[in-house]
Amino acid sequence: MKVLTATAAIKSLGADFRFQTVLSVKRGSKGLHLRLQMNGDPSFSSEDLSALLAALRHDMKQTTVRSIEVIDSAFTGHSRSRGQVWNDIGVCFAAPVTALSIDGNCVYGNLKPGRVGQLSSLHVSDSQLLAIDNQIVTVAADTADCQQNLLVGEHNRYRLTGCMPANASMMPLRFSINDERAYFALKLKRSLRAQGFKLNAEPQFTSGLEAYSQSYIHRSAALIELLTTMLVESDNLYADSIFKTLAIAAQRPANYEVASEVLIGQLEQLGIDVTRLQIRDGSGLSRENLVSAKALYQVLQLWQQDPQLQPLISRLAIAGQSGTLRYRHSLTKTPLKGHIHAKSGYVNGVVNLVGYIEKDGQYSPFVLLTNGVVLTAEEQLALRKRQIIHPVLSFERDWLEQQWQLIK
């Protein structure tokens, strides 16, 4: 899906497109009135917000903020696509996609075992951003079937249940926030105070307001750089934020349904066979996405033929070197290492790889889609013990090596 998203984005938005976040101000007799227009920049960070406020503070003698309105209506509809797996919610790779994007809409933490019979030790990078009720108990090292479960509540509240063996390694955690406004408001208030402003009102979230005459603008990196992050790291927030922005460029409501229509229309204009496509999002998180090998192969050929799309080839992950292909077991040895430029795709039961075999400067496109993957109990055990590599990856390695030999 991200290959299709990148194609439509370059054609619809252009490689130099940049997300803009706009802070504007109106001076009043008793203080400042601020408006912050958020437009779904997936790369926007607390540092970027601080830089906007620092520029404002430099120009203002007044420090009292009488009101601050946050315009968050750039994206409409649901913050997650139809067909996403319900128990992915709460994990950062499925963070909500809204205009209020900051720091990846994600909070980091880790979990360590304690003494047997006691609760595990939970560390969260910022406990004010979310509340976690940790009920994971430490159990003996030889305890079988020990699992951890995440229950997602309202207002950025979570509950961890289950058990953790006493000899377990530290478990990294990445929590997706679920109340975007509460999360963003806290970050905004912190940044205002850090820059020396006095806030006399809570942030208000609204729509349809124009910026005041005096403005400060943060621009993201160019789209081609954002697409590099999306393709190499397989970043879902980047993918779906760019996906929804396709609808804005078409001057239509920026929701998943409309963006799907826009993307399919763009591909059809480029001569891609869209008859078998069913698109629910730009990231591939929805299990309802249906993409044909033929359409993907046509897109890869188009990347080679179209000067506007050719730069995307060099923005793919490289086997054994970068992104999702750095440690892919099928690609870490010669002759494939360093010579496969591709995008991986994985959900439960699906293992995909699409891209190019590079040999002596020649790029040959390929598409490998594997659906309905089920391993036997013996295979699963051997895989966990690292006695074998995944059977699909074994096939993938052998097939790609055969193709490599066929390229003259």
UniProtKB/TrEMBL annotation:
<dbReference type="GO" id="GO:0004180">
    <property type="term" value="F:carboxypeptidase activity"/>
</dbReference>
<keyword id="KW-0645">Protease</keyword>
<dbReference type="InterPro" id="IPR000667">
    <property type="entry name" value="Peptidase_S13"/>
</dbReference>
<dbReference type="Pfam" id="PF02113">
    <property type="entry name" value="Peptidase_S13"/>
</dbReference>
<protein>
    <submittedName>
        <fullName>D-alanyl-D-alanine carboxypeptidase</fullName>
    </submittedName>
</protein>
<comment type="similarity">
    <text>Belongs to the peptidase S13 family.</text>
</comment>
<keyword id="KW-0378">Hydrolase</keyword>
<dbReference type="InterPro" id="IPR012338">
    <property type="entry name" value="Beta-lactam/transpept-like"/>
</dbReference>
<keyword id="KW-0121">Carboxypeptidase</keyword>
